[in-house]
Amino acid sequence: MDFGIVELSRLQFAMTALYHFLFVPLTLGLSIIVAIMETVFVMTNRPIWRQMTKFWATLFGINFVLGVATGLTMEFQFGMNWSYYSQYVGDIFGAPLAIEGLMAFFMEATFVGLMFFGWEKLSPVKHLVVTWLVAIGSNFSALWILIANGWMQNPVGAKFNPLTMRMELHSFYDVIFNPVAQAKFVHTVSAGYVTAAVFVLGVSAWYMLKGRHIELARRSIAVAASFGLAATLSVIVLGDESGYETGHNQKMKLAAIEAMWHTEEAPATFTLFGIPDQQARETKYAIRVPWLMGLIGTRSLTEKIPGIDELVKNSEARIRSGIVAYDDLMKIRAAKGDESPAVKADFEAHSTDLGYAFLLKRYVDDPRQATDAEIAKAANDTVPPVFPLFWSFRLMVGLGFAFLAVMIYFFIATNWRGMTYPRWALRLAVWVIPAPWIAAELGWFTAEFGRQPWTVDGILPTALSVSHLSVGDLLITLAGFVTFYSVLFVIEMGLMVKYIRKGPYLDVDITEQWQERHDRMLSGQDLPVTMPAE
């Protein structure tokens, strides 16, 4: 087994996923914000809200188109770099992705054209319905993708077939309502909403600092602050739910995130700060908060959270059980389905540990020939790198609470301080724009890197999932993907900056005329005015 190929394949997928996830959060959140703004326009018939809708929809459209391009190449990699994975779990993993393409993406792609080009063709209410369908389609896409990813974290509703050497679906209901998938979906979508809210807030703050488009900026800040406050609270609450599901289904990941080397008496403490040392199995300079980890991981003060040492011993026991399953598997395949009932029953008893036996493939071709030392090494391989997981999680959480503070401030300033904002606050809003993307990437890293050494947790090791490619093939495609994605990223940034600098350029005359007459009406100098008929 060439681990250079494994690591290069992982690096390639990680790079493309990180690039793709630069586009996804803004698409999820901005689609909802645009729909909210258009809803206000339809309810009030004020042109300023139509102008706002068109402006932010333009930025959404740029991000949406480039996000689609980056997502298509990711799916290409499943067949190119991860062919054994695709063959092994294609029955389960392929179904949600197919539904995502047939239902969510087609709906999103169909209505996005009507959203941009249907302003003069559709009535305001019909156009509003189209905009909401685009937003719903965007979020439905995330749902099915995260159902697929959630199954990799917690493989339910499927069973291994020893004759075909594949996982086969037996309960689509369990796959859809997988608690890990549902927790990941609501947490990821809420993070996208925060990203969009911070983006709208920051761009609007920049306009106010420049003294441009003040009315649009003030109203956009009002929407972003209210929407962002609700979304940030959701991220924190749903992040807690995600932590609970991790503690229930992925105990090693939780122990690594917490750098919990040894099992503690309940309730477990949370390490606020520390320097994890994986070699010494200790966390230096640790600052701990009593009870907090017990509440996050178990929702109780009486349950223990197993430490890494205990989980490694458990993995060793499962590897030995998996060796029994592997031996039975070889007998079943040799008998071609005509095995004895005793062998079949023995395989069924140990089949859930078969994936652990596959971890031995790193050291020996036949797991049945593994020595005690090799079994111990394979058990230690179930511990992911602790230091990066420990700090990526804490930086993500810290940024989440920082967003909460920003949104609370602007929500209060909007609703109780007459929408007046000091320049330091506006500058802060501009500077914080990149932060949600950093938090989102850290969250993705924590979720996926923490699952190692598994592609499908407890079922299929990452090292067995790759295609039989050469190092040269991988280096060429890696360079090609990085170049392609970098070009798309530069195009995205260039177009975004161009249209932000250009500002809202649609319906300017109608909006300004309406605003002028509206101000005169409020001062008693004119009669009420309604939006001109289209």
Automatic annotation (TrEMBL):
What's an example Gene Ontology biological process for this entry?
aerobic electron transport chain
Q: How would you describe this protein's topology in the membrane?
A: Multi-pass membrane protein
User: In its keyword annotation, does this UniProt entry include Transmembrane helix?
Assistant: yes
Query: Which GO terms label this protein's molecular function in UniProt?
Result: electron transfer activity; heme binding; metal ion binding; oxidoreductase activity, acting on diphenols and related substances as donors, oxygen as acceptor
InterPro entries reported for this sequence: Cyt-d_ubiquinol_oxidase_su_1
Membrane-crossing segments per the record: 20-43, 55-72, 92-117, 129-152, 190-209, 221-239, 391-412, 424-445, 474-495
Pfam families per the UniProt record, alphabetical: Cyt_bd_oxida_I (PF01654)
What's this protein's family per the entry?
A: Belongs to the cytochrome ubiquinol oxidase subunit 1 family.
Q: Where in the cell is it found?
A: Cell inner membrane
GO CC, any one term: cytochrome complex
- Keywords, sorted A to Z: Cell inner membrane, Cell membrane, Electron transport, Heme, Iron, Membrane, Metal-binding, Transmembrane, Transmembrane helix, Transport
Give the protein's recorded name.
Cytochrome d ubiquinol oxidase subunit I
Task: Respond yes or no to whether keyword rRNA processing is given for this record.
Answer: no
Source domain of life: Bacteria
